Amino acid sequence: MMLVQGQILDDRYEIDTLIGQGGMSYVYRANDKKMGREVAIKVLKEEYCEDEDFIRKFQNEAQAAAKLNHPNIVAVYDIVDNLETKLHYIVMELVEGITLKNYIKRAGRMDSQEAIAIALQAAAGIELAHKMGIVHRDIKPQNIIVDSEGNVKVADFGIARAATQQTVNATVMGSVHYISPEQARSGQSDERSDIYSFGCTLYEMLTGQVPYDGDTSVSVVFAHLENPVPHVKDLVPDVYPALDMAVYKCMQKKPKLRYQHIGELMEDLRRALKDPSGSFMAGEMPEDLSETRVLSPRELALLKHRQELRQKVAGLEAGEEDEEANEGPGFHMTKLYRLIAAVCVLLIVVLVVIIGRNMLSFLRESKTALETTQATEESSTVTEAATINITISALDNLLPNIVGKTVEEAEEYLKAYNVHLKTVKEDYSDKYPTPGVILSYEKEKSGQGNVLDLTLSDGAKTIEFYDPDTKNLEALHTMKCQSLLDELEKRKITYKVEDEASDTVPKGNVIRTNKPDTSGTSMLIITRSSGTQQVEDPVLVPELHDLELEEAMSTLEDAGLQLEGIDYVESEEGENVVVDQSLTAGTEVSRGTAIRLTVASSTGEPFTTGALVSGTDNAWYGSINTAVKIGGETSPAASNTRVILIRLCQDIDGTERYTTLQEARSYAAGTELQVVIPSIKGATGVTKGTVEIVDASNDTVIASYSVNFAPRNS
């Protein structure tokens, strides 16, 4: 059944979009919610879910591919058989890139170096599969992916089987333009069959066209069986002779004349980079079977019958679309029946029977056989990338891109190359913030062998703190300031430290910073805790609740404390009665500490009367009740705190006299300071004065207010 966007499989995989389909399955782009990554999910079509044989093939496909863990193989992450929902699916790596088939279509033929660069990586993946006893059996450009970083991955081990399994499958697997003669003839295959198909792929990479073509699928297969092995140099004269010979050797009709192991091919490809002439291959090339020779009577009879078969098949296949252009069955059923009849007539020669049977089976099963794990345009784990980067390294060797990978990952990528890695330095990188990731590499300028000097990431250059808007400081408060300073010094980031007492942040830890990270050009200000403020000349905070305001202020004065300000709130308590205080009664504080009072009012507004204290003396008194914002009134400072002093200025006999009303205290920038002083003692007979709010750090007046003075109780 078709899946829909947003559908979640097994509480883990959220379906996004359909990205392709093949003969047996649909392929979807999905999100693995558990691992937090994009994946491709291949789901068996509903019509096959009741077919035990198809399910078995589907499971075998997944199990074979899941064994292969290599950077040059599309990874299989999970295999799920949900019997309740009757969903059978495989979770695979989603590759950002392009199939080699499309790469060839866009770029045309490749030069020798580029072809070798891609071939070596693909061969490394195939080599691992062969070592694990798995033959791909469908190597072709559609099943090779080049990602956006230039890394090559082999896909679709869907029709692979264990190399040790000797059961002959009468159905000829693989695509006709790349099928080995032994696969077409008997359905049997081994490592050398993959090497043949790989040679066909190399031929197409170098020439821009397939080695054998024809009007029908059968004619293409006969070409693989009968036509001479082509030379790349016949179409591309400037191809490396060594590379031409390597392709020629891969495509020999007899498996024993090919490379016996793909590792041998890889070695010749590497040699071809250093010796393009191919002198190292002299005397190793197989006999050119295309040379003229005398045929035996038996061979002549076989050739005659083959020709008759081809003529009959050609007539029946008139109008058939090429298999690579249309992945549908090669014949309509009526044509299949007639072809079967034709084959039956030609049972005279056993070899012809075998060929005919396999060709018919191939055509009948072509859609199933040609289904891919995700590398074809119809069914793909590859999403198109804008640019592809294939490069030749300075080592006179070809290396996949290892920037952004760990050393362990790089070693896995480079194990097919005779290259050694050496870490020489570390550097900071915002692009690759994970420590240990490779930032760059270069060939060692001295020493022996192929050695890459690595530069590894030591983390992001930018150091993040917190979001000042959210005031999420808990993590910051656990940070040792010295550790932070060491890191800043290491990264050559300038800073300024200010100390501040704190009852909650341990001494030496960070209280706050002035910005969320070290980016930008402004100075980084770090406020460091100096620990709990030491109480000097201690006094006890008196109980002020339920006292009249004037009595409360008098009590504070007697205790050696100051009034910080007054907040008025609506309350059922008596008018002008203290209902709360900023410091709890009995708390030990330093003499001169300011306390803020909360006073009851029926309206919540300050009183306009009763602001003067009672008593008799010669002084005159005034009062102030206002608010001032402590912030950017002065020039931008390096700190997010302000040290504020409140003073009274009066003209006495032509001389300005200053009286401190509140000692210098620190306030956070942006604080709205309530300046509420009901009883300001002034000079006798002086009716005017000015209350000034002063930035004590630079003696700058932030704000000033005119105050009238009069005798007490006037």
Describe the protein's topology.
Layout: E1 8-9, E2 13-21, E3 25-32, E4 37-44, H1 52-66, E5 76-82, E6 87-93, E7 95-99, H2 100-107, H3 112-131, E8 134-135, E9 144-147, E10 152-154, E11 161-162, H4 181-186, H5 191-207, H6 217-226, H7 241-250, H8 262-274, H9 297-316, H10 333-345, H11 350-364, H12 366-370, E12 382-384, H13 407-413, E13 420-427, E14 438-443, E15 451-457, H14 474-477, H15 481-490, E16 495-500, E17 510-513, E18 524-529, E19 538-540, H16 549-558, E20 562-570, E21 578-581, E22 588-590, E23 594-601, E24 620-630, E25 641-652, E26 655-668, E27 671-682, E28 688-695, E29 700-708, E30 710-711
Parallel strand pairs: 7-12, 13-15, 16-18, 20-23
Antiparallel strand pairs: 1-2, 2-3, 3-4, 4-6, 5-6, 7-9, 8-11, 9-10, 14-15, 17-18, 19-22, 21-23, 24-27, 24-30, 25-26, 25-28, 28-29
Helix pairs in contact: 3-5, 3-8, 5-7, 7-8, 9-10, 10-11
Task: Report on the architecture of this protein.
- With 714 residues, the chain is α+β, with helices and mostly antiparallel strands.
- The chain has 6 domains: 1-93, Phosphorylase Kinase, domain 1 (2-Layer Sandwich), CATH 3.30.200.20; 96-285 and 297-390, Transferase(Phosphotransferase), domain 1, CATH 1.10.510.10; 402-454, no CATH class; 474-529, Trypsin Inhibitor V, Chain A; 538-601, Trypsin Inhibitor V, Chain A (2-Layer Sandwich); 620-711, Immunoglobulin-like (Sandwich), CATH 2.60.40.
- It has a 6-stranded antiparallel β-sheet with strand order 1-2-3-4-6-5, covered by helices on one side. A 4-stranded mixed β-sheet has the order 10-9-7-12. It has a 4-stranded antiparallel β-sheet with strand order 26-25-28-29, with no helix packed on it.
- A hairpin with a 4-residue loop joins strand 28 (688-695) and strand 29.
- Helix 10 packs antiparallel against helix 11.
- The radius of gyration is 43 Å and the shape is elongated.
